[in-house]
Design a protein that fits this description.
CATH superfamily of the largest domain: TolB, C-terminal domain
Low-confidence stretches: none
Shape: globular
Order of helices and strands: EEEEEEEEEEEEEEEEEEEEEEEEE
Oligomer: single chain
Number of helices: 0
Radius of gyration: 20 Å
Number of domains: 2
CATH class of the largest domain: Mainly Beta
Strand content: 35-45%
Strand order of the largest sheet: 1-2-3-4
Distance between the termini: 29 Å
CATH topology of the largest domain: Neuraminidase
CATH architecture of the largest domain: 6 Propeller
Structural class: mainly beta
Length: 286
């Protein structure tokens, strides 16, 4: 049961998760606790890991994200060493190498979150940020930060007045994190009033640095690419892994370029009057 989008690794292979299936049959779902898998562009499929109840965490719902260290990071919606504390066994955060070695980085205990179901985002400080649907000081969900080595900090606990059941975060090129909650708050719409179920849009600012983002995130030499960022007016150079590219500044937030001859997988850098901005994920040149 694949539940989330695939992610293309820097090795050119595709990685993903299944909500159920795998070797361990100890979950509530009789078909298994979930897996992490890899398959090549040619179609060769490999199960990298079958989650084991409860210690690994089980039943992953969110897609993986590849960190700048080359490993993949993800969440399990249930399981973990704090089995029985939360209604759904709290859930975990994990790291897995491209070869399949899994490390459980953190088991939630309710006070710091419960039921992580959204993908992580690696921000410009190298740490990962995410949300849990429940748990926290008021039981309405949290925003958290975790280091690649597994140190977790709860950044915010929702209290219904500012939303509840938060889902996926994104990082704006200004450095600020944005997200939405599925419920909470109240208001009057054009056609009806909702009380406690309207949801919210929120931002979290923790002093992260601005960056640039390539769209799409991969391309062959000669491919057209947009570079998104903040305060790009006056940019003097754009490079792909230190290979200079021809470019045109369209607006303060948009540069168009073509992938230059000699470009290889690595950082995109834009030099502006206020400093050098780098991409927070490598641009992949097949």
């Amino acid at each position: 049961m694949p539940e989330a989008a695939l992610v293309e690794g820097t090795d050119g292979n595709f990685y993903g998760i299944t909500y159920a299936g795998g070797a361990d049959q100890a979950c509530n779902d009789p078909t298994g606790c979930g897996t992490v898998f890899k398959f090549t562009p040619g179609g060769k499929f490999t199960t990298l890991h079958s989650f084991v109840y409860p210690t690994d965490g089980i039943l992953p719902l969110a897609g993986l994200v590849q960190g700048t260290d080359g490993n993949f990071y993800g969440t399990n919606s249930s399981g973990g060493v704090n089995e029985g504390i939360c209604q759904f066994d709290c859930g975990t955060l994990f790291k897995i190498t491209p070869g399949g070695t899994l490390t459980t980085l953190h088991s939630f205990d309710g006070t710091d979150g419960d039921v992580p179901t959204a993908p992580l985002v690696q921000a410009t400080d190298g740490n990962f940020y995410g949300t849990t649907l429940g748990g926290g000081a008021d039981g309405d969900g949290t925003v958290f930060r975790i280091t690649p080595s597994g140190t977790l900090t709860t950044l915010h606990s929702f209290d219904n007045a500012d939303g509840r059941l938060p889902n996926a975060l994104i990082q704006d090129t200004s450095g600020t994190l944005y997200g939405t909650t599925e419920s909470g708050a109240s208001g009057i719409g054009k056609y009806h009033r909702c009380t406690g179920i309207c949801g919210t849009v929120f931002s979290v600012s923790v002093g992260l640095s601005p960056f640039v983002e390539a769209r799409p995130g991969s391309g062959k030499v000669g491919a057209a690419v947009k570079i998104l960022g903040t305060d790009l007016t006056g940019a003097t150079s754009v490079s792909f892994n230190d290979t200079a590219a021809k470019f045109a500044v369209v607006s303060s937030s948009d540069i168009t370029i073509t992938v230059p001859t000699g470009a290889t997988t690595g950082e995109v850098k834009v030099v502006t009057p206020s400093g050098t901005l780098s991409s927070n994920v490598p641009f992949v040149v097949p």
